[in-house]
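JOB MANIFEST
job_type = single_chain_structure
chain_count = 1
residues = 60
[input]
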Amino acid sequence: MTEAASAARRMEAAEPRRATLLRKALEACEQELTVLGRTEEARSVRAELDGTAGGEEGTR
């Protein structure tokens, strides 16, 4: 999941599906990290998700 999120981050900001793909990848990554007990990393992903939820295209 972290690889999928990384790939979505690298997409061109002008790509129409970038925000949707990034959000889905980050949500899956957060869930996976939580299940693995990696709560600090999951919180970091959640913070990024909260930043992209408002439509911010330029994350990272």
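[summary]
The radius of gyration is 11 Å.
Residues 1 and 28 are 6 Å apart (CA to CA).
exit_status = 0
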